[in-house]
Amino acid sequence: MIAQIEQGRGQASPGLNVGDGIPIRAVELNVSQPGPLRILLICPDEPLREDVGAVLAELGREVVLSHAVAAYPSGGDLARALRTFSPQVVFLSFEQVETATAVMRFLESEANGLPVVGLYGVANPALLLQALRAGAREFLTRPFEREQMAGVLQAVRALLRSAPLAYAATEHIYSFLPSKPGVGTSTVALNISAAMAREQNLKVLLTDMDLSCGIIRFLLKLPQDLSIVDALARAAEMDTTLWPQLVAHRDGMDVLHSGGVNPQAFMDTTQLQGLIDFARCN
What is the pLDDT of residues 6-24, one digit of tens each? Predict the structure, then answer.
């Protein structure tokens, strides 16, 4: 049982215009854990984007293409993408050098240390130099090959091990663990979460992780629908469109219930970590 609390809204970082409504916390969330490498692809060139996606697909479970953007994003869209997907590396094409460089500066201000891999349709030493000066760590030029891509990603992993990447996230996570069954832990967690949800500027997520006898769904009279088991199964593709379909809303709280009794269900720790990371950032 986990109740997560996010309080207040901070100020936008300098760079591109972020806009309103992006909650920013100074607390850092380390996303350099083992597991598939999460990639954010920014590439207006459709054939180039498809070529990169095809080679990434060949790498299988080593990587996850979390999100692909078909245009250079605004500051607000890019900030949302970083918070939603928490990428560990950004693939950025340099069709428009000045715009791509502005994106680089914004990435540096929002996620200091986030590795960026420059993408090029044709090798151009002048462009490579500009991207290097802007802060790109690695470079890939067409034709993209699996071995070349794997080598670049291996270098990114080494960089993340030496300088772990961190994102802004809420630090308020409270776990409720029973000493034995039937002592009212779920009731306590529910009432504390409901009380916090009544406070101004508090955003509360109550998650029931008891797959054997979780009762939050019963207590709140929630429909069966989707549960944390479904959320875990889709953790790698989680985004702000999918998340509202999985989370119920009651009395100012977001609730992710455990579904029906299923003592045979298994929680994959990598999926669970990814899900918690997403929730902390959103």
Answer: 544 333 333 343 333 333 3
Q: pLDDT for 23-66, tens place per residue?
A: 334 344 455 556 788 899 999 999 999 999 999 999 988 898 98
Q: Taking the alpha carbons of 272, 159, 29, 177 in that order, is the dihedral positive or negative?
A: positive
Nearest to 255 by CA among 226, 213, 234, 281: 226
Tally Cβ neighbours within 10 Å of residue 61.
Answer: 8
CB 148 within 8 A of CB 262: no
List the domains of the chain with CATH numbers. Answer: 2-7+171-281 (3.40.50.300), 28-167 (3.40.50.2300)
- pLDDT the model gives residue 57: 92
Which letter, b or e, does each residue of 135-174 get, where b requires 16 or more Cβ atoms within 10 Å of its Cβ?
ebbbbbeeebeeeebeebbeebbebbeeeebbbbbbebbe
